[in-house]
Write a structure and sequence with these properties.
The chain is mainly α. The chain has one domain. Helices cover 71% and strands 0% of the residues. The chain has six helices and no strands. α1 packs antiparallel against α2, α2 packs across α3 and α3 runs antiparallel to α4. The termini are far apart. The relative contact order is 0.11.
């Protein structure tokens, strides 16, 4: 008996296959998965932009991807948005207010 798998899972498999076939970098794979709504990829990509590991450090991109993950109610993403807001990042404050997590 075959097990049903979601469209999102199939999309991730295709993206990973293409990434391996064309030797894409991890950030490129994460971005592709994140753009298809994978919450873990969104969070991981945000972390990369926040720390500058594997990509150029970009706090605006980090907040963008934390937001997308937070909108799917990923607690870690909400935690990092709060951290950014506490450090005075205006956009992070606004995003927390928009998703109702102040």
């Amino acid at each position: 008996m075959l097990k049903k798998i979601s469209i999102a899972t199939v999309a991730m498999i295709v993206v990973l296959y293409v990434a391996i076939s064309y030797s894409l970098t991890i950030p490129a794979v994460l971005r592709a998965l994140a753009e298809h709504g994978n919450v873990d990829a969104q969070y991981d990509l945000a972390q990369k932009y926040y720390t500058g590991k594997g990509v150029e450090k970009d706090l605006h991109e980090a907040v963008k991807w934390y937001r997308k993950a937070a909108e799917q109610d990923l607690p870690e993403a909400i935690k990092w948005l709060r951290k950014a807001a506490d450090q005075g990042h205006t956009k992070a404050k606004k995003l927390l207010a928009e998703i109702g997590n102040q």
